[in-house]
Structure to design on (250 residues):
């Protein structure tokens, strides 16, 4: 790992009350490694919050006995976050809907994956020892 | 994170301090619904001290707006910073909510 890299690994119970603390910890780490502040005020915290909420509520079915793992790495080029839950995975493309159409604009739910897609440079989902949602945010 | 509700000329002004996310959205929703239950029909969300909002937070605002509208009321927003404006524009919710630059302008527009 280059000297200018930051890495973090955490494991939390499936409880949404842990989300804000993890986001704050990642933000602090990114700030230490001069990750652009404008990306830390909206893009990264919202994308990470969405990924964690999906993992807790959907992947793990809001079961507090289950665990969500978080891996974060920041280097000179980008931030990469992996959020791993105990679910079977999902079809990212099929589950991402446009919430801005007139028939969906006033729905309470359904904006999470759409927001993630818009706020990060790359969003992936795959199964590897759990359901993994991985997103990348480049420094520039 | 905290929510403070003040009343001014029959308008409930909700100050959202910190984040509005999945972990606290129900608290906000219940506080506002309690106001609606007690007769309030005009609600102003003041985001001057708000950090970020996730999709759950946006969803609660949509839900509250519908509840108020169904009761003949209205939900207005004020003091969105550039990031929050971006969020509302990305989701086109800026077309759903009346958004004012300041609290004062929002209060005048009710």
């Amino acid at each position: 790992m280059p000297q200018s890299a930051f890495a973090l690994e955490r494991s939390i119970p499936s409880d949404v009350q842990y989300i804000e603390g993890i986001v704050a910890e990642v933000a602090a780490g990114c700030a230490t490694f001069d990750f652009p502040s404008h990306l830390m005020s909206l893009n990264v915290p919202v994308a990470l919050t969405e990924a964690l909420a999906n993992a807790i509520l959907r992947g793990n079915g809001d079961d507090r006995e289950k665990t969500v793992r978080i891996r974060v790495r920041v280097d000179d080029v980008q931030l990469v976050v992996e959020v791993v839950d105990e679910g079977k995975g999902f079809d990212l493309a099929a589950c991402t809907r446009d919430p801005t159409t007139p028939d969906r604009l006033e729905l309470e739910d359904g904006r999470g994956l759409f927001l993630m897609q818009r706020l990060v440079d790359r969003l992936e989902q795959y199964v590897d020892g759990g359901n993994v949602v991985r997103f990348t945010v480049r420094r520039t | 994170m905290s929510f403070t509700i003040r009343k001014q000329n029959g308008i409930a002004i909700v100050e959202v301090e910190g984040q509005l996310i999945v972990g606290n959205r129900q608290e906000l929703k219940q506080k506002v619904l309690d106001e609606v239950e007690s007769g309030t029909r005009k609600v102003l969300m003041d985001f001057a001290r708000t950090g970020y909002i996730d999709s759950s937070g946006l969803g609660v605002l949509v839900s509250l707006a519908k509840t108020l509208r169904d009761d003949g009321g209205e939900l207005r927003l004020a003091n969105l910073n550039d990031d929050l404006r971006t969020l509302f524009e990305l989701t086109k919710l800026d077309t759903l909510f009346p958004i004012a630059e300041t609290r004062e302008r929002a209060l005048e527009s009710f």
